[in-house]
Amino acid sequence: MNILERDPSDPQKQKKEGINPPLKLVLELGPLLVFFFANARGEWLAQKFPALAELGGSIFVATGLFMAATALALIASWLLTRTLPIMPLVSGVVVLIFGALTLYLQDDIFIKMKPTIVNTLFGGVLLGGLFFGKSLLGYVFDSAFSLDAEGWRKLTFRWGLFFLFLALVNEGVWRNFSTDAWVTFKVWGIMPITLLFTFSQMPLIMRHSLEEKAKEEQAGK
Fold first, then answer.
1. What is the C-alpha to C-alpha distance for residues 139 and 85, in angstroms, rounded to an integer?
2. Cα dihedral sign, 35-36-41-43
3. What is the distance between the alpha carbons of residues 168 and 68, in angstroms, rounded to a whole number?
4. Of 85, 61, 87, nearest in space to 183 by CA
5. What is the DSSP letter of 119?
6. DSSP 145
7. Which candidate among 24, 62, 82, 156 keeps its CA 20 to 30 Å from the CA of 92?
8. Cβ neighbours of residue 146 under 8 Å, at least 6 residues apart?
9. CA gap 216, 220 in Å, rounded
10. How many Cα atoms within 13 Å fall on the side-chain side of residue 204?
11. Element (H, E) at 40
12. Per-residue pLDDT for the chain (221 aa), expressed as one digit of tens each?
């Protein structure tokens, strides 16, 4: 049995690993929204659920609930597809490790460094894969796009650089602004930036889309 999602070239991938896109979005963004809400309403949550008060202040309550929501999202992914998506899995492992350090040492620096570690890791893996001739971004977007080899290489390179950019941005924000400002930016700043970057890649995707090329060939006949 394959625990991790299949290689994009595996013909069994689409049949066995399909998941409703809105539900997939909920599973991926849900833990982040839990983190934002818990940080904003940490004191209220601690009053309603006294056990949470043992974790510490709002950021620590948010961290504990973020860890729980992340674990639940991965479990839900497993129950729905019988596989674990690679990038959310890597991010989840880092959340659990750095979240545990945050709670144990009562130092929020660890959870603040998590996006830096994850984005640097993703960027390094994507760019490193290109060095060895592998366009690893297919693991993320192959269900949405069907591109030729050059398109995957270019898109992988751009996303690799973008992940490194996000790592630098996270470092700049958490080191220079308050915890509340960092949490707000993490949810409501990073998401729009990522969406804008994603939409900016559509011309490249259209140029290298195998479906578009097939349509052009059909039209030319």
1. 8
2. positive
3. 27
4. 61
5. H
6. -
7. 156
8. 209, 210, 211
9. 6
10. 16
11. helix 21-40
12. 445 555 444 444 444 445 666 777 788 788 888 998 998 888 889 888 888 888 988 899 999 999 999 999 999 988 887 777 777 888 889 999 999 999 999 999 999 999 999 999 999 999 998 988 887 777 666 556 678 888 889 999 999 999 999 999 999 999 999 999 999 998 899 989 999 999 999 999 888 887 655 555 555 55
135/133 Cα distance (integer angstroms): 7
**Helix, strand or coil for residue 47?**
helix
* Spatial contact of 136 and 179, defined as CB atoms under 8 Å apart: no
Whole-prediction pTM: 0.75
Task: Give the integer Cα–Cα distance in Å for 35 and 45.
Answer: 12
% helix, strand, coil for the chain, step of 5: 80, 0, 20
Contact 88, 73 (CB under 8 A): yes
3-class state of residue 14 by DSSP: helix
- CA end-to-end distance (rounded Å), the chain: 44
Residue 31 Cα to chain centre, angstroms: 11
User: For residue 108, how many C-alpha atoms fall within 13 Å in the half-sphere facing its CB?
Assistant: 19
